[in-house]
Amino acid sequence: MAGLSSRYTFVPTTEIVAGLRDKNWAPVAVEQQRVRTATRFGFQKHLIRFRRAEQMDTLDEWNVELVLTNSHDAGCAYVLRVGIYRRICSNGLVVGADSFESIRFRHAGLEASEVVQASYRILEYLPKVGTLIDRFRNRMLTSSEAEGFARQALLVRFESPDSAPVEPATLLEPRRPEDQANDLWTVFNRVGEHLLRGGLSDARRDRAGRLRTLRALRGIDSKVSLNQALWSLAEATATPQN
């Protein structure tokens, strides 16, 4: 692509995917940034989620995933993050930076094997993920605590409660019977699902009197940022206050 530095090393994502496959990471989901000009098509930011091959057929309630983001226009580095897939709601979560610092690779002099080798850090982190989720499950929230969590979560996406299209309590409404519990893990997941997928309305209306609706997030960066912020919020909620 024109304008790139001579130090820029083009490492096709297909090479990374092939290398991760060899290490039993199976790609399970992919998305790419929308582009407005034809010259950027094929170079834009993209995100691929991988799951361990041995977990593909299990019925676990959640599985750890590797989340890879990259672009070929020098807009961002290769980045590896820890993700979690929750089967009940098909939520693709991203662990907060406070728990697992993302692994970044500059394109200058990059070898595909470096990214593949770094994937083992995700495996090393797996036991800690289970420990954190158990903490979330064992932390029961009162009604006021759950609404407080929803209010703080709403502020991650909107400037103020008044600027949001729905009330915080609306984020607590379950989409399915399995999500009616009030433990932190369940509340965290249903609030996050609403904020990411949208589609919610309550009594709030705009200046023209039209019913306001919570819209789905579309951008890769906005979804990853929201996911990480909500995870950090859940961790803070799970930690006993002195």
Topology:
Layout lengths: L12 H10 L2 E8 L13 E7 L9 E9 L7 E9 L4 E4 L8 E3 L6 H27 L4 H15 L26 H14 L3 E5 L5 E3 L6 H19 L4
Helix pairs in contact: 1-2, 3-4, 3-5, 4-5
Order of helices and strands: HEEEEEEHHHEEH
Radius of gyration, in Å, reads 19 Å
Beta content: 15-25%
Largest sheet: 6 strands, antiparallel
- The residue fraction in helices comes out at 25-40%
Categorize the overall geometry.
Answer: globular
Question: How would you characterize the overall build of this protein?
Answer:
The chain is an alpha+beta fold and 242 residues long. It has 2 domains: 13-137, no CATH class; 139-238, no CATH class. It is 35% helix and 20% strand. It is built from 5 helices and 8 strands; from the N terminus they run H-E-E-E-E-E-E-H-H-H-E-E-H. Strands 1, 2, 3, 4, 5 and 6 form a 6-stranded antiparallel beta sheet that branches. It has a two-stranded antiparallel sheet with strand order 7-8. Helix 4 (184-197) packs antiparallel against helix 5 (220-238). The longest helix is centred in the middle third of the chain and has 27 residues, at 112-138. The chain is globular.
How is this structure best summarized?
The chain is α+β, with helices and mostly antiparallel strands.
Q: Could you name the key traits of this structure?
A:
242 residues, alpha+beta, 2 domains, six-stranded antiparallel sheet, two-stranded antiparallel sheet, globular
